[in-house]
Design the sequence.
């Protein structure tokens, strides 16, 4: 064994190796999880919300990873400290070395111990990384339900059997778009999937005069298609686009000149000198809603005559908060909101509030949940699910118009057949029956009405969501993992008197579904 001489008595000093205290190692792991929750969660939110990917702060990933890695390294290191056997004098630690045993273990035992330490440290590091991802996702859990509702279902966007009377249907009603004063077609053109100039021109011929587009629709191709289609018709159209670029939304701190440059790019593609309306797109946070640079850019563009009105679009977990803040601010002329039959229980007061402030409301996501598999159950009774859904949305006088993605001529015919028509009892019956079909599996996000009725204080909404993960998404492991972490599970529902019965406004048979969840997840 290597030794040094004691500077006090001259006796041999033997090296002592002291491991880093575990509290420091675990503190670094805890710091990594905190950074993953905060910085990683912010990055994930921006990514899901659609912020321009080239401008995302990817360095947010580096800090939690660095913290985890530092903790792992410290598990292998120790302080080397020479200690005098005679007088006990110990020098300060002089360097780091790979941790080793100082007992009488044989070399093979040392190797085995070191191998076990490597495996343990690697396992801890892997668990920490998985945990970091988990807390980042958990911070954005509201997007899970929203994503399922709006993007997860294959939507019945057109009837399989067109009817002759739909041919060449026209817009029959125009509504005032709030204080913009514009009279817009009640059913208007969304262009997220459009790739045909002829389809857009056909829509114009049939009376559609509101076009909604964005640079990140089809990698700017949507704006190019509409630009060609609008030639000779620009003065008859109301055109809305978004503050974004081809690969996503502009971050809050984007310099004002860059924001203006992005809008000018939209003007070039649309082949126009101005747009009537520009939205802060898919907004989920107040700091983005009121980002000073975006508002300064809008004011400058408006002074230059390149934009006329400001709006905000949102179909996110914080829709109600964003909508109310936008209305209260007085800055916004138009709200573009997700709205359809059976959703957003507290939505009517938002529409009434917007109307009272003379703010236009554009409805989107109006066909949510129209799954082919479910509609097939009563196809003979449903000429057009879309027409029934549109009539329901437009039966609310506080809605200025709805926007629906159009990319085929026959969609124009079918959709416009509902223009200017009244909601009928058969429409409502159709929509209600469809809701009944999905009621057993659809737990409305942002609701929670049933929670106070549970005498065991079970997180009913969470349990039904975990059931959805396992049963609908085939994420069995994730659903069971989350369920296993609950302090109380749905086994308590077996002998419960079910005071939750009838509490769900969407008709979910709570006790039945909770017991089913336990069978899937336990």
Sequence:
């Amino acid at each position: 064994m290597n030794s040094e001489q004691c500077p006090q008595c001259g006796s041999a000093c033997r090296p002592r190796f002291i491991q880093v205290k575990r509290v420091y190692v675990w503190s670094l792991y805890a710091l990594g999880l905190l950074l993953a929750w905060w910085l990683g969660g912010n990055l994930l939110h921006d990514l899901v919300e659609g912020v321009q990917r080239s401008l995302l702060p990817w360095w947010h990933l580096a800090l939690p990873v660095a913290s985890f890695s530092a903790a792992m390294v410290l598990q292998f290191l120790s302080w080397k400290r020479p200690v005098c056997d005679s007088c006990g004098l110990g020098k300060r630690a002089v360097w780091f070395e790979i941790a080793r045993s100082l007992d009488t273990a044989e070399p093979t035992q040392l190797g085995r111990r070191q191998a076990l330490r490597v495996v343990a440290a690697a396992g801890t590091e892997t668990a920490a990384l998985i945990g970091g991802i988990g807390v980042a996702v958990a911070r954005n859990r509201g997007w899970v339900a929203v994503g399922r509702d709006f993007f997860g279902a294959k939507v019945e966007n057109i009837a399989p059997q067109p009817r002759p009377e739909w041919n060449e249907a026209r817009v029959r009603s125009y509504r005032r778009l709030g204080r913009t004063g514009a009279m817009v077609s009640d059913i208007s053109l969304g262009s997220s999937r459009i790739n045909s100039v002829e389809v857009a021109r056909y829509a114009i011929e049939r009376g559609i005069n509101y076009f909604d587009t964005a640079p990140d629709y089809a990698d700017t191709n949507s704006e190019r298609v509409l630009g060609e289609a609008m030639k000779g018709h620009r003065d008859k159209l109301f055109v809305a686009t978004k503050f974004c670029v081809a690969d996503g939304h502009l971050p809050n701190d984007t310099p004002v000149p860059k924001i203006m440059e992005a809008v000018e790019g939209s003007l070039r593609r649309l082949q126009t000198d101005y747009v009537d309306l520009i939205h802060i797109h898919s907004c989920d946070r107040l700091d983005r809603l009121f980002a000073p640079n975006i508002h300064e850019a809008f004011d400058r563009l408006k002074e230059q005559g390149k934009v006329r009105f400001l709006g905000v679009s949102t179909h996110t977990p914080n829709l109600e908060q964003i909508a109310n803040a936008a209305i209260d601010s007085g800055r916004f002329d138009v709200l573009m909101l997700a709205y359809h039959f059976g959703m957003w229980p507290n939505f009517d007061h938002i529409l009434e509030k917007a109307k009272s402030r003379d703010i236009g409301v554009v409805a989107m996501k109006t066909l949510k949940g129209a799954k082919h598999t479910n509609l097939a159950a009563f196809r003979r009774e449903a000429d057009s699910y879309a027409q029934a859904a549109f009539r329901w949305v437009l039966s609310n006088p506080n809605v200025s118009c709805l926007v629906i993605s159009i990319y085929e001529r026959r969609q124009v015919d079918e959709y416009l057949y509902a223009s200017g028509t009244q909601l009928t009892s058969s429409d409502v019956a159709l929509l209600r029956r469809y809701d009944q079909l999905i009621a057993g599996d659809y737990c409305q996000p942002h609701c929670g009405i049933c929670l106070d009725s549970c005498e065991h204080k079970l997180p009913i909404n969470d349990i039904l969501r975990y059931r959805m993960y396992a049963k609908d998404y085939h994420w069995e492991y994730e659903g069971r993992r989350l369920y296993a972490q609950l302090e109380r599970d749905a086994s308590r529902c077996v002998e419960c008197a079910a005071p939750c019965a009838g509490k769900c406004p969407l008709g979910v048979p709570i006790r039945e579904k909770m017991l089913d969840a336990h069978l899937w997840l336990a």
Remarks:
- The first strand starts at residue 4 and ends at 5.
